[in-house]
Amino acid sequence: MKTWLDAWPVYRQLTGSDPLGRGKAARSKATEAVVSRTATADRIAKSVCPYCAVGCAQNVYLKDEKIVQIEGNPDSPVNRGRLCPKGSASKSLVTSPTRVTKIRYRRPNGTEWEDLDLDTAMEMIADRVLEARRKTWQDVDAEGRTLRRNMGIASLGGATLDNEENYLMKKLYSALGAIQIENQARI
Prior knowledge:
Blueprint: H1 9-15, H2 29-33, E1 43-48, E2 57-63, E3 66-72, H3 85-88, H4 90-95, E4 103-105, E5 114-116, H5 118-136, E6 137-140, E7 146-157, H6 163-175, E8 178-183
Parallel strand pairs: 7-8
Antiparallel strand pairs: 1-2, 2-3, 4-5, 6-7
């Protein structure tokens, strides 16, 4: 016959087969009912951690097409299932309720932000890049030597870009004629 004492972990520890309280004595009904988020996932998507250039592989666990957990991929030769503290917290990067998911723009000398649609923002960026390239293009120097460079566009990549993104950025800026191309992870 069970009594109220049976629900008390210290009693179970002292009277049961778990005197150190590291096993069954420490478990409550609530603990027994807990199931890991990875066990309830519908599917697993493979990904790469977005924080640095190492390229640690991640398993993204989804339930009802929503991310429930992100863990290191144990099949990866790069990180063998391990993630650094930033990589371990990457779920909050994509699921945080404070994450900005709209394109925000503040006009020159403006005091307020406004939302832009993607097409408008992309057109504004393209216009500014082409104008900067046109204004600052150097085809030859004072002595007539070929330069073919752009001194008005530079790039400083961040540590949240992975190797593939940095590679594409380097190709893009080189094609635009930029020579000041750097990355925070290398500095």
